[in-house]
Sequence to fold (267 residues):
Amino acid sequence: MEVIIDSLAALATSVGSKIVFAVVVLIIGKLLINAVMKLLKKGKLLDRLDASVKTFALSFVKIALYVLLIISIIGILGVPMASIVAALASAGVAIGLALQGALSNLAGGIMLMAFKPFKVDDFVEASGVSGVVKEITMFYTVIMTLDNKRITVPNGNLMNANIVDYSSEDLRRVDLEFTCARNEDPAKVQSIMIKVMEDNSKVLDAPSAPFARVSGGTNEAMNFVVRAWCTNADYWDVYFDLTQGIIEALGEAGVQAPAVRVMTESK
Fold:
């Protein structure tokens, strides 16, 4: 009986020491991982990388370090790695089905890094969401909407969706539509619109000069389309300046029923 008790005590001591050691390694490992991630974020090692690639790389490094930590703890507990590999192999089909969505998102993240349809700080519209890209991680992309909502979009969805990047080009064209009374002189209205655009210092003459033409109408009103080029950074300033400036100029010139029509594309 004493032999059995001694054996159980020795086994408990051995197992207990392994568990305690594993817990210590877990705590120290987490602290080290946090320290490494802070150093990588604050250091200059990844500064040369594009912001999109940087966030993806940080996410990858963090996951890889945690995988190494888990493998180390398993080794400390004395669990044979061969047994673990065999168990994972036998459960491979079930694991594959369970991780199907995650693997799709991982593949999507890799594709985003390879083809770069957008980058961090770009204003994009994709997968039913529009906003500024804040992070691109291994599995998800974080987008902040204009009203400051944080939306996390799976990378797999993004790679299977049409992506509109409004920040990719240096120049953008502002398209507006206006209406006025049918009995007005089209040439007069057009000249007023052109003058307002030419007086705006942020409106560019290239790649094409400011444009204003009759685009249609009804029995009561005429429709005019207005187009002006500007830098991407000035888009919203020009958009609102022209909207207000043209309406005011038409009113001051005595044009009847001046109004702006809402355009479908306004990002």
